[in-house]
Amino acid sequence: MRGYIGHFDKVMQRLEWLKGLDVRVKINTMISSQNMSDLPELARLVRRIGPWGWSIYQFWPLGPAQAVSVRHEAASEDFVLRAEEARKIVECAGPTVVEVSQQLRRRSTYPLIYHDGSINVHSGNEVNSLVCIGSIFDPDARLKIDSRCGPERLEAEPRYVR
């Protein structure tokens, strides 16, 4: 994970720590052609961890990722097939909510928050083009997100109120 030595062990430690505090944990996983074959093994790990939720996202080449997109792009059909197999592995063992999100679905409904607090959404024009709609520090940040990403926000609500 992340390419840093010790990162995986540190994340696993923190997950155990959070379990002891009875905190609801959600794991986000980006799937590309480089790690798609590892998805069943990853699903078994997620099943052992037992988080509240697991989101499996199809690789979406934005920003610096565009430079490596040819190496990481995965066909949507393959992604859906593998992700649904992973969902079955995890959901058969307990209450973990598994969300599978294809790249095209997220383009029009998914706000991306950058490290500087800027809120970015798909421009609606070029395939991987984003537009900044403000900052998380703006008083009307939630309104801006809801006005651009409204359909997904309504669809997602049941996932977050369980």
TrEMBL record:
Alphabetical list of InterPro entries matching this protein: Aldolase_TIM, rSAM_sf
Protein known as: Radical SAM core domain-containing protein
